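Ticket #4471: structure output looks truncated?

Reporter: J.K.
Steps to reproduce: submitted the chain below (103 residues) through the standard prediction queue, then opened the result file.
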Amino acid sequence: MSDTLKRIDDIVKGNHIVLFMKGTAQFPMCGFSGRVIQILKACGATDVKTFNVLEDDEIRQGIKEYANWPTIPQLYVKGEFVGGSDILAEMHEAGELQGLLKA
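Returned output as attached by the reporter:
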């Protein structure tokens, strides 16, 4: 495992909920990241650790390899990859995401 993938693994496994996104929760830098922040707020998630991939190009590229998922944002809960913006929107609409975040 490369140093970058190890750093990502430590972040993912060291936090209950982690969102790798463009920008911050207060100032998302893309519509998809902003959409996920709104979904998480609507679900009542409060202990979300966000990581701004625009501040670290190694993480920005490495996160795509880590999850074998080509896009950002990426949400992880309890060390497991959940999905990106579209998947999270579908899970929220189906009522599945709220339970996952609270479990």
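Triage note (M.O.): checked the attachment and the full token line is present. DSSP finds five helices and four strands in the chain.
Status: closed, working as intended.
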